[in-house]
Amino acid sequence: MVGTDQRIRPFLWRAERLYPDVEIVSRTDDAVHRYDYGTYGNRVARLANALAAADIGPGDRVASLCWNHHRHFETYFGVPCMGAQLHTINPNLPKSHVEYIVGDAEDDLLFVDPHERETLEALADSEAFESVQQYVVMGDEVPETSLDPVVDYESFLADHEPSYDWPDVDEDQPAGMCYTSGTTGKPKGVEYTQQMIWSYTMSTLTPQMLGITDADVVMPLVPMFHSTGWGFSWAATAAGAKQVYPGPSPDSADLTRLIEEEGVTLTAGVPTIWIDLLEYLETHDADISSLEQIVAGGAPVPESLIRRLDEEHGVEVLHAWGMTELTAIGTVAHLPPDIAAADAETRYTKRQKQGRIVPGLEFQVVGEDGDEVPWDDATVGELYVRGPSVTTEYYRCPEANAEDLTADPGGDRGGEGGEWLATGDLVTVDAEGYVTLVDRDNDIINSGGEWISSVELENAMMGHDTVSEATVVGVPHDRYQERPLGFVVTAEGATIDPDVLREELRERIRADYPKWWTPDEIRFVDEIPRTATGKFDKITLRDAYRDHDVETNLEPEE
Ligand code: AMP
Question: Does 300 contact ligand 1 (Cβ within 6 A)?
């Protein structure tokens, strides 16, 4: 005997009916916009009508290149509840990646923030964009643009009814989509079905995960294009919580103001944001006393950050680990009652770990011998995860299925795939089941929670005619957790001045990649160490430069 399918729509229905007056606040470029779940529901219905009028229906794919604001939040329900699929795209990606991703996903309609339109303008004539029928700019007027056909979001909604005859969407219907960085090659698409999002949302509400309730005021800072913004928009709606969207490029002053004025209790984002916020609070008088919890993850969270937020501001940091493939969060350093009652040092030690598996998922950590490692906090193995919110298939990418999905953790890969996801994260597990991430089995660089492909940087540098070899490794960094450090061997007989070459290499990289991909430091060496199989030995390099301080020239907002 089963009830209805597990789908997203009841979360919206409940918020509209039970919490019609609860607010949704959104910071815009120059003001703060606010409405309630009642009005929100009407606008979501108008959006569904507008999409239907634009010929979007079940099975179609609607993409967004947008930051965290109320209009983007409207697409989070409007698109999947009418049976279509919301494909969120990171506007910070290199243009070549956006081109590949839109072409691979064959998106039908694109929502774009006004200040992100330049990426699309540069690509709109390419073959990859042939499927795109319509551009909708998030705002109430169309800025000067070559995009065509184009309409602003408010005009798109304007003439449509505030109610929609919602279909009973099947739980296997794809509802969301997000591409994740390929470790060696092209980005890999992950699709989220209605059921994956439903089950992820339900576990988010459990106290062992995030325990969001209708007493919370939730401010999601995780970009809504990254791994479903860790699912906060759906979870906060399901709970009937007030939501606060920080809008485009919020700085610490904006965030502090929103916390103070809106009474934010729970917020979430990568460690870099909290490092900046702490620094800001040192020199500014601000009242963040409403804030109870910060969910921090996407990159390792330094213990000092957890300690300082607790001791100086009474804010509990919940360290979380997750992946695009898991819908979002997979482990949380939640403290069970016995550890919560332990001394402060024990608590900080546990809180700094990536955490315990969330309700509904299972994990195994498998050592080099193919067996599960003991839970001794010391033996390292690869983390495998499975569960209802974990993908079992990459979009049109059989190579990735064979490489990253398996029926047999620790067994031979490269086969048929399976339900266990090989995360590529190398971890230990302690006696209480807390996972600690010690390394990754790939070379991509995690700069403040976003990825930089070392392979692409190497190719760009090796394309210079005075370079014979180049490699890039990630080295620890206080603010960004990891930054790229480049190594170059110049070609025999090359007489170019090192500073000139450095600048030329940086220019080559900036021409094709975002500025934040550029290695802060490029070192000239006589040779790059190699492994027994002749590959660049990045492990040796990373170890040798573990304590090396790279000076980043990135501004806080980059
Ligand atoms: P993404 O799919 O882009 O969210 O990246 C997922 C990867 O980010 C994981 O496999 C980890 O390597 C890394 N990651 C996520 N959360 C954490 C964390 N709390 N600590 C360290 N690495 C993390």
Answer: yes
